[in-house]
Inverse folding.
């Protein structure tokens, strides 16, 4: 449905009517054409449900002079669902295999004063998706780079996993080969943050087994499958539980793994004594005790008493 409204946009940007003349706002299926600033506009798109797209993202897709996408067919279909016409605007493919070649063309458009909207196939551009080379090149050229935030499988998984989200690390996909994957997981084992990984459904069983061996069977985790889609599923438990539940499953769909952070270090008396001895070589009793107590999560008063005895 097409309609018109008058007056300035809520964000203070003068709307752009058909033909490029700033005037009344023109709506296309709920999207509003506006005069976008020249530059690169990174647009997050739904990871499953088409209605998860934001109103601002629809406005940008309706208004940009040039559209670029990881998958032009997917973006075209999304625009059709929401009633946004292409109106003869160029749509440029920009994906892992051609980003280096597509970037100069898009930068030329920006240099000519045009607005370029870039969307990955699903989710937020650059987050385990193409767009990094393009964004970095635009920044290097001094171009305006803006983001229209929205759907992200990382944040969606963190929201439903039931694990701490105050500090997290997104590590992308584990390597394919066994040796490289083992090293990858060993590097992450003691990170004091909740971990988020993407994984192929064909490898998730084996990765859970590897996680259980490297991280320990009692570490809590969640397997998030097909988030926001019809067959969405979140399975929670210890890594041992998850290994058992997924052992004989033929898993399908997109997978996000969320793993609880490493437990606090537990030190025995010998370790604490050694740490105090090292600290007392260069620090006062008070400072040495405070540092060791914080490092191992111990009561400062108890460590201070130990430090006094070892400093005599």
């Amino acid at each position: 449905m097409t309609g018109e409204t008058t007056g300035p946009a809520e964000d203070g940007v003068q709307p752009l009517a058909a033909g490029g003349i700033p005037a009344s706002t023109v709506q296309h299926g709920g999207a509003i054409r506006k005069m976008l600033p020249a530059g690169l506009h990174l647009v997050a798109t739904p990871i499953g449900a088409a209605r998860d797209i934001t109103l601002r993202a629809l406005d940008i897709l309706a208004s940009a002079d040039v559209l670029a996408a990881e998958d032009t067919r997917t973006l075209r279909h999304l625009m059709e669902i929401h009633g946004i016409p292409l109106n003869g605007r160029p749509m440029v493919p920009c994906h892992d295999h051609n980003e280096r070649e597509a970037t100069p063309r898009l930068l030329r458009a920006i240099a000519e004063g045009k607005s370029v909207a870039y969307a990955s196939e699903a989710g937020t551009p650059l987050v385990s998706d193409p767009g990094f080379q393009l964004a970095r090149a635009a920044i290097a050229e001094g171009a305006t780079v803006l983001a229209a935030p929205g759907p992200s499988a990382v944040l969606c998984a963190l929201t439903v996993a039931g694990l701490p989200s105050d500090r997290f690390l997104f590590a992308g996909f584990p390597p394919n080969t066994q040796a490289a994957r083992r090293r990858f997981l060993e590097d992450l084992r003691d990170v004091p943050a909740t971990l988020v990984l993407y994984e192929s459904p064909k490898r998730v069983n084996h990765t859970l087994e590897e996680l259980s061996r490297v991280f320990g069977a009692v570490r809590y985790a969640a397997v998030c499958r097909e988030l926001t889609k019809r067959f969405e599923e979140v399975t929670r438990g210890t890594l041992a539980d998850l290994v058992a539940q997924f052992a004989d499953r033929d898993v399908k769909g997109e997978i996000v793994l969320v793993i609880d952070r490493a437990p606090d270090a537990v030190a025995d008396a010998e370790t604490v004594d050694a740490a105090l001895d090292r600290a007392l070589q260069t620090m006062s009793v008070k400072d040495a005790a405070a540092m060791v107590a914080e490092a191992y999560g111990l009561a400062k008063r108890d460590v201070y008493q130990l430090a006094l005895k070892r400093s005599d």
About this structure: The longest helix spans residues 99-111. The mean pLDDT is 89.
